[in-house]
């Protein structure tokens, strides 16, 4: 396989065999799932995905709550980015307004998820049941990776 790396993905010369394709996709998926990717929240604020505890979105405003107790309000968001959960498998949308970073879950009680920044995110009974199923799978995946 003749390729070169540019620290984002590979540029591939064709033809490409099936095994070369799977190898390339494995590398791309590892990069995508990286919790250390940098995200620009606002024009002057950049952080890693790992630094984000959760995002609350209402109307055209998104509030990014970070693990260092800071939060940033960004206006002009027309809708929550529903792709985050599929692109970054450690983010989970617990409601229409809230997206949680599963790495930042510190504890779970009857009706809330407690995050590492000390914030509680309250869920409905149904929402908590769905969250626990996703969080159990996330924790299992972490244990298997170790």
If you had to describe this structure to a student in words, what would you say it looks like?
By secondary structure, this protein is an alpha+beta fold. The strands form four sheets. It has a five-stranded antiparallel beta sheet with strand order 7-6-5-9-8. 27% of the residues lie in helices and 35% in strands. The radius of gyration is 18 Å and the shape is globular. The model has no long low-confidence stretch (mean pLDDT 80). The chain starts with a strand and ends with a helix. The chain is built from three helices and twelve strands; from the N terminus they run ββαβββββαβββββα. It folds into two domains: 30 residues, no CATH class; 108 residues, OB fold (Dihydrolipoamide Acetyltransferase, E2P), CATH 2.40.50.1020.
Q: Main attributes?
A:
3 helices; OB fold (Dihydrolipoamide Acetyltransferase, E2P); 27% helix; 35% strand; globular; 146 residues; alpha+beta; three-stranded antiparallel sheet; five-stranded antiparallel sheet
């Amino acid at each position: 396989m003749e390729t070169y790396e540019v620290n984002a993905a590979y540029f591939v010369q064709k033809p490409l065999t099936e095994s070369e394709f799977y190898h390339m996709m494995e590398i791309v998926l590892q990069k995508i799932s990286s919790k250390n990717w940098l995200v620009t929240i606002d024009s002057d604020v950049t952080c890693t995905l790992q630094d984000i505890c959760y995002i609350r979105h209402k109307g055209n405003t998104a509030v990014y709550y970070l693990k260092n107790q800071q939060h940033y309000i960004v206006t002009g968001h027309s809708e929550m980015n529903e792709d985050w959960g599929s692109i970054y498998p450690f983010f989970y949308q617990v409601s229409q307004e809230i997206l949680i970073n599963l790495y930042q879950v510190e504890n779970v009680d009857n009706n809330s998820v407690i995050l590492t920044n000390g914030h509680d995110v309250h869920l409905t009974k149904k929402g908590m049941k769905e969250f626990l199923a996703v969080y159990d799978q996330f924790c299992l995946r972490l244990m298997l990776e170790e």
